Amino acid sequence: MSNDLSPKERMAIERVHMPELPADERSKNFEEVNQGLSPDQAVAEAQRCLQCKSRNCVAGCPVGVSIPEFIDALASDDMPRAAQVLRGDNALPAVCGRVCPQETQCEALCVRGKKGDAVAIGYLERYVADWAMQHPDELITEDAPKPTGKSVAVVGCGPAGLTAAGELARQGHKVTIFEALHDTGGVLRYGIPEFRLPKEIIDREVAVLSRMGVAIECNVIIGKTLTIPQLRSEFDAVFIANGAGLPTMLNIMGENLKGVYAANEFLTRVNLMEAGRRADSSTPILQRDEVAVIGGGNTAMDCVRTARRLGAKRAMIVYRRSETEMPARVEEIKHAKEEGVEFIMLTAPVAIVATEDGWVSALRCQKMELGPADDSGRRRPQAIEGSEFDLPAGIVINAVGTSANPLLTATAPDLTLNKWGNIVTNDEGETSIPGVFAGGDIVRGGATVILAMGDGKRAAAAIDKYLKG
Ligand code: FAD
Ligand code: SF4
Questions:
Q1: Whether the CB of 47 sits within 6 Å of ligand 2
Q2: Cβ(13) to ligand 2 under 6 A?
Q3: This prediction's pTM
Q4: CATH class entry, domain 151-245+404-467
Q5: CA geometry: angle at 405 spanning 177 and 270, to 5°?
Q6: Is it true that domain 247-401 has CATH number 3.50.50.60?
Q7: Ligand 1: distance of its center to the CA of 242 in Å?
Q8: How far, in Å, from the CA of 187 to the mean position of ligand 2?
Q9: Region 7-138: CATH code
């Protein structure tokens, strides 16, 4: 395959479209919506890259993936090299190729985006990562590192913990991950539904780490089973990456009614325990015709699209600002609309209404209008007096956000926290306890997969430096 195209020829190629399952078919099952590019589509898209000297796209990637290099290898049909370059910079490329908001990161800075469509970097990342999973025998292997004799405990098996574990294992340190749940992946497994990120992808990415010698101990709650001081005394260093999974309450009447879920509970039951998807699931889930999801982020989109797949006739997003201010990925909003999700914008919940026997029957709402911008730069919603109305709903899901869970930090009094309970670190991820590092959502509050991974990578480099004195 030739990658010897002139800039003019490259500019003439149009951005590829991701093949998708038809909306009426996919809204009834949990099959992955995006089907992945064909080899011809991937090479053509790779040939759109101008191989700019400025490498703007790399600056937009929180883990600094060598984007032009892996795309060049792909355009030249040198898949083993493409996979080697990608894997060298990113421990979870098949995950990132599916869930990263490239449109606000690498693709937002891509030179081609100035006059038209950016290179579809995310699609290409997914293509190369999937190829690598399907062709293990063709991959360029790395020599096993020399063991350093040092040990590191990682708390939490989400993207921050997995990334740090991979980087540390590569340096020859002995790594053990402690995970509270019975399975790996953190939000990747219990939060993000299979129609966006199949579990098989997480299993395969985790298997790569296991082959590198990383030990994973599930069902261990740090703060209960063991504490941070105990880990610190048994290991040479500790990396805390336990996420921020505590639901933010709505603080409205009716929040404790039967039929109200926090987003993480709803998604965990369906994604991790397969409620509503398998008759022998170990946990139940309510199924109702009308489901109202409060919030406008990725979590809200995942809940509402899941409710639709579980059979809701009216699956509704209730959001207090307008669509322009929604933090969810553009692709998620588009997919949700195609699947028949209703968007009830400029509407805030004021109470949850019950039947006589305590089941949810409606969400009482108030219409909003947008005022001047607030600290986040988004226009502030203001209530319109006298505009209350009841939206019939048998299930209400609270997807307005999460914060740090104090379970772990309560047993580590020497850890400095900020006013929201997040762990305070320096730029390298070191906490107030020497030898204890932290990263991901427990430091940032709810953020993104790639930012958590960036923290894991940075902290691993600092831990390596610390261990080598
Ligand atoms: P987590 O992924 O939360 O992992 C933390 C792990 O620590 C969990 O496995 C948890 O069980 C474990 N743990 C917690 N407490 C303890 C303890 N005391 N002891 C031991 N283990 C413990 N980001 C994107 O970039 N793109 C998306 O499309 C996207 N969609 C999302 C959808 C949903 C539903 C949610 C909730 C988030 C989404 N995000 C998305 C955000 C992203 O998933 C998180 O920012 C990211 O997972 C944070 O990684 P982490 O490793 O810090 O924490
Ligand atoms: Fe290629 Fe865009 Fe990166 Fe330039 S900025 S190297 S065109 S991906």
A1: no
A2: no
A3: 0.95
A4: alpha beta
A5: 75
A6: yes
A7: 8
A8: 30
A9: 1.10.1060.10
